[in-house]
Fold this sequence. Notes:
Layout lengths: L5 E6 L2 E6 L10 H16 L5 E5 L4 E3 L4 H4 L4 H7 L3 H7 L5 E5 L2 E3 L1 H8 L2 E5 L3 E3 L13 H9 L1 H10 L3 E2 H6 L5 E3 L4 H13 L3 H13 L5 H14 L4 H11 L10
Parallel strand pairs: 2-3, 3-5, 4-6, 5-7, 6-8, 7-10
Antiparallel strand pairs: 1-2, 8-9
The chain binds acetoacetyl-coenzyme A.
Amino acid sequence: MSYTHIIVTRQDNYAILQINRPDVLNALNIKLMEELVAALEVLDDDDAVHCIILTGNEKAFAAGADIKEMADASAMEMLKRDQFARWDRIRKIKKPIIAAVSGFALGGGCELAMTCDMVIASETAKFGQPEINIGVMPGAGGTQRLTRAVGKAKAMEMVLTGRLISADEALRWGLINKVVPVEYYLEEAKVWAKEIASKAPVAIRLAKESVLKAFDTTIEGGLEFERKNFYLLFSSEDQKEGMKAFVGKRKPEWKGK
Ligand code: CAA
């Protein structure tokens, strides 16, 4: 498949999806989001891909939704475009997604990073929900995912002041996983992707699904869900292989089934 605003590269058993609209700091217009979601779904369906890295460039992961594209829209046009519905499809991707962030991750860019499962950032990364400065508010999950990630006080601070936070603050606040010098952010994400891609794929899929379940269920419902997924894994060949390999003191060979 050929794309205009993204670049997809496959490496061994993981893939890198790069957002590529550098002239506008990777602003997320409708076409870009269409391509990004379609590419994620293709990679999700590909058994050879076990993990996905989502990245931008050194200057910007993404500076938000494309302001020029929506500046003159009416509420009815926005409703009809329903552009954020596309984001729900990202939430349904089963493979783990690691965001490798450098530079600006603002508005929809910060929301996109939060939609990923883990975030590796460069020291130069800046996160923020600055929509308040242009007379709106987050619309792609910012008020919900940010609040769950950093708590009410910090979420209010970011959403109501529009202030940007540094990578170190984002790390301290629990928004991201690791901060590295700018030369290494993509390399570090690759190390994580390779590690995750080396695990049993079905266990990875059900583990991701179970962690995400914690966001929209009661503790009781979540524990029940987790338990069923745990039991389900005992019908996989990889569970038999993993446990036999442990007992036999050898490396497991995963079949992905
Ligand atoms: N949409 C469209 N174009 C954007 C953009 C965006 N979100 N962010 C940057 N650009 C464009 C600029 O218009 C500029 O284009 P031109 O060269 O054609 O003028 C180019 O990218 C470079 O940007 P700047 O000259 O502004 O670069 P800077 O280094 O001086 O500033 C910045 C960088 C602080 C990130 C600034 O560009 C900025 O504030 N951008 C907007 C950030 C923002 O408000 N994001 C939220 C968008 S709304 C949203 O995302 C809603 C949602 O919930 C999904």
